[in-house]
Structures are given as C-alpha cells and as structure tokens.
Amino acid sequence: MIGYRFTKYLAHKDLSDTTFDQLFNVFNELLLITGGDVSEALSWLTNIDKQYNISNSEYGIGDFIDDLKSKGFITDKTPDGSFEITAKAEQSIRKSALEEIFGKLKKSGKGEHKTNFTGLGEEPGTDRRNYEFGDLLHQISMTDSLRNAQINHGLGDFMLTEDDLEVVESEYKTQTSTVLMIDISHSMILYGEDRITPAKKVAMALAELITKKYKKDTLDIIVFGNDAWQIEIKDLPYLQVGPYHTNTIAGLELAMDLLRRRKNKNKQIFMITDGKPTCMKQGIKYYKNSFGLDPKILNKTLNLGAQCRRLNIPITTFMIASDPYLQEFVKEFTTVNNGNAYYSSLKGLGDLVFEDYKRNRKKRY
C-alpha cells in the first residue's frame, strides 16, 4: 500500500518544565507577600506544596531551588550566604503583574498614545502634504517627490524643484509624566486583610507597561506613611507596611515637586490608599489624629488638591475602603481637584488604574 498512515499526535510533556512554571507562579506571589524575602517565600512554598502537592516524585522543591539558581532568578552569593532575588527575578515579577492586570490589552488592542492631532512627532503617518520652509530632510517622501517631478517636467528634461516635494506628516503622540503614590500606613494590613500586596502588584504592572511600551513617558513612585519618599521601580517587590500614620500631605507635596521638574504638558497623580489623612508635619514635630477627619489636616490636604487643579495636574484616588465618611472625604477632595475617584475592591483595582491611565494621558492641556 502506497501512502501515509496518520495517527493522533501525542506531544511529549516535560513534567519538570510544567511543574517549574506552576511553582514559579506561586513563588512570585509569595515574594510579594513576604516583601522579597526568598527564604521565607521558599518556606511558605514548601508548606503549600505539602498541602496541595504541586510538585511530584520526579521534581521536588529542591529541584525547583536548583533551577531558580541556574536560571538566574535567585543567588546565594551574599556575605552571609542567604538567598536573594536578582534583577531578572524583579523584572519577571513585574512582567507577571502586567500580564495578570493588563493582559486583556492583547485582545482589545487599546492603550496606545495616538491622538487626532498631527504635528511634531517621531511616528510617520500616512498623510502627505506639500513641502513648507522649515521641514526637515528626513520628512520628505523621496518616492512621491520623484514621481511628481516626472509628471511635472517629464523624463527627457528631468528636474526636481521645491514645488515637487512632498512631506510625510508625523503623528503627534502624547507623553505623560505620572507620579504613583502608595499608602504604606499600618492600616494597609489591619483587620486581617492584605491590601499592600495588590497595591504593589498594580504599581509593578503600571511600571512595566510604561517602561516597556511607552518609553518616553516618565513614572515616579512615592510611598507615604508618617513621611513621604521616592523609591525605585526595582524596590517595589520589597515594599512593606510600617507602623505609620497617613501623611497624605507629604506625599502630595513630594509628587508636585517631582512633576514640577518634568517638561511634559501632561501630568497626573495616582494615589492608592485605604484611609483618611491622619498626619502632617509641623517643623520637626508630627501632628497626628487618627480619630475621624481632623479639620486641620483635612484643610491642608484639600488646599493641595486645589493647588494641583490650578497646575492642571489631575489626581485619581483609589480608595480601598467602603466607610461612608471616608468616601465623603474622597468626594470632597476630588471636587476641589476636579480629578477622579474610585471606591474599588482589591480585585478590580488593576482595571481601574489602567482605564484612568488611558483617559488622563490622552488629554492635552
């Protein structure tokens, strides 16, 4: 019999690769919860594996640790021989957060920086126009210009004049400077609810989105407790809550100072918090009041919100709480700033951040 016999294709399944991926996903989550403590994360992973049997007889936690080292995700080349995550692992965590929170971008195709305006820019468009004095050489479409010269002057007496030149219009794309404020006060882990881990995940997803897709944009990250200070993107996995009050004023002042140095016209502030402002600094002393909304702290916070409005800096507040009086505070703060506010569950936080990021960044002030 001449011909071929076809049978069902059975792909070879590499159990070690599959198990590594499963363990690695859990390991990344544990790193966020433990603030980047590799040893604690591995200890938790071992207990989870004991309960849910993620590994198998052919590939155990010991093999997983060896693979983490060989693949460059962790290292034990430290002064005390303890494990630490590497820059590769930090990027992997950010990428994982991006895929989890903004993964729907691949299907929707949204999230570009395009506007309806043409002008100075780096992206060539499809529109053509006549050459004008001041246009740059690289903007001239040589193919179209030569064609015009042939039509206007013929092939026998070929010449290229200024009237033959056509220029490719550049598409104007907006650039945005964003400051992301993250509340690290003690209330972010109170009442048995972990609110800081989702906040970190959103921050890492946003950072990965901007640094990889919108490379000309800027992102500054601020954490605020009793005081406010700037952190690097690489520090996000290690972020932990402290025994702090909520000094929203210090966070806003630092955010405004950072944006003041940026030359982009589009500027915005994102603030992820779960509580009211309870602290402000007076000289070298702290004024604190955790009982209700203190008028002294509240008025200063509202004044800064109004100041941001005058500077065309919208503030989007993501309140991870449902208390009526907290919502009333956010409503008043949003009104004076003319910004946006969301009262979100932790599950929906990522989607809300992204939707508002697209909306604000397309504005031209």
UniProtKB/TrEMBL annotation:
Residues 178-276 form the VWFA domain. It holds the Pfam family VWA_2. Gene3D superfamilies: von Willebrand factor, type A domain (3.40.50.410). This is VWFA domain-containing protein.
